[in-house]
Amino acid sequence: MSMLDERTDQDIVSRLSKELDLRNISSVGNAYVSIDVGTTKVCTLIAQILANGEVEIIGAGKSKSKGMKKGLVVDIDEMTNAVRESIAEATLNLDIDIPYVCIGVTGSHIISTITTGNAPTMDGKSEKVVTMKDMDAAVENSRPSVENGQELLHVIPISYTLDNTSGIRNPNGLKGTTLSVNTHSVIGEISSLDNIVQSVENTGLKMGGMVLEPLASAESVLSAEEREIGTILVDIGGGTSDLAIFKNGKMVYTAVIPVGGFNFTNDIAVTLGIPYETAEELKIKYGRTLAIPEDIKSDFNEQVEVLITGQEDKRIFTKGDICRILNDRASELLRFVLLKINDAGLDTMPAGGIVFTGGGSNLIGWEELTHEYIPGSVRIAAPRDIFGIA
User: pTM of the prediction?
Assistant: First the structure.
């Protein structure tokens, strides 16, 4: 195990709380509550910190999402009911109060930018020892101005420059005359964020903080070494796919692609003329994102009978019909990913390659199809090393 992996879950909580300013997210004692209000489902997790510093999930709830489209709330009452159902399942048999929760957010309205700020506490004339106060002042000075209707979610330090030395991660205790910082700022629409918060607070809970979902996903599925050497994370959700690029341990770029698992299912439903629920079942049972190889072509031509509720006739398709539909949408998503990688200014793929997570990444063939569009290593990841999670 490398030194980079020698960290505890308590380290993760402490670092996230410090970097993202997550105040009051604990409920009682050492319990923490998080809610992911997604397009297809609402997930609630309740965790506690064990004596050895590790995180254990003590409650989990999931409900079908209603009232949301592509990460945006379109029906506040429906969304509130879905959140309430998820919380009720997570707190079943738990005797705890939950005054504050941490909410995961994403959506097509999320944008990011790289900003720079100087520490006004260092005048460039006299040498002094850098303090945390100086570092905080530089970060505060890097906060970008936002337009009306926008809200600044995160300002995450990437690296510092002390005098003429750049790329410093922690200048605390070093001597110099000037200090500046490059930060990754994440911005969202106030109305979209407020609607998500309102759907949670309508249940009687209060928001203690918000976390950009790609950042939370990275803590779950990427190793410290992957974040260090550079990795692209793509989280394929229900309504959107979140992309985040990590370098030197920090998230340096993020984007939201308006294509997710819903689009895959909807394509099958529309093309084959079947109900959405039936299309979802076909996707899960037979779905592939890559054409079946010639040596098992018979499987590609195998027929699938579908009974449509309320209709007497059976509908007959082949596995190849389903595969071709999914292949078209998956190829579109990968082209979007490649476009965002180019927008980020990457000349070459990072050493850690690209990591897919999220429900949509479970379709067979993601690795092979990705290699047709994007160079470098590819892997499919799921949350790891978390006690109590199903």
Answer: 0.83
